[in-house]
Hints:
Number of strands of chain A: 0
Order of helices and strands of chain B: EHHHHE
Oligomer: heterodimer
Shape of chain A: flat
Strand content of chain B: 15-25%
Number of strands of chain B: 2
Order of helices and strands of chain A: HHHHH
Structural class of chain B: alpha+beta
Amino acid sequence: MSYKETSILASLLITLGIWGNYAWGVINLYQQELLSTETMYGLLFSAVIYTIFLEILLQTIVAIIKHKEANDKSDERDNIISMRANSYAYKVLIAGSFCVTLYILFPVIAQFTFSMPGLAKEYEIMHLIIAFALLAEIICSLVKLISYRRGH
Amino acid sequence: MANVITNNIRKLRFEHNEMTQQKLADAVSVSRQTIVAIEKGKYSPSLEVAFKIAIVFEKPINQVFFYLDEV
């Protein structure tokens, strides 16, 4: 596995692990009826700090292990793969923006879809935006990984 | 009908003092992984890179890359 693939895989695992843990934490708090702005902020900040810390740590380790390739510049194939991955992620973000707009315009949707009792409406919207941004990031990483594996 | 671009880069590398993929990659300013993908026929390079590879092997481009029509 090349340096770029390993680096993307590390980022993907960090994103899935930490933000999966965050979602699990929020669900647990909700089930225990302990979900509040304070507990949510605690989870959110720890998720952000762990993401930054683990990204620095793992990317450094990957760069040390694959030091021969770590300083290679991106070439045309990297750019094509990156463009393809970004185009998929962009579509997810557009769909997410559309969903969030609908959610804001028609609050009645919350009763049937996504609702976080214990938190203000703004935080529900914030979580929706975070969820779609993470989904876009995950799809971007997956498309890159698949493209590198397939060769293009 | 599928169009396929193939090449004989591996053979040409062998004929050029067993040139490594890394050396060829450095000569045409791409990564070794890109050369691997081109050799396997998984990635079709841009015209610029194709010409650079042909220049490295001192061959016309049509002796390095081949365009096949497959039914």
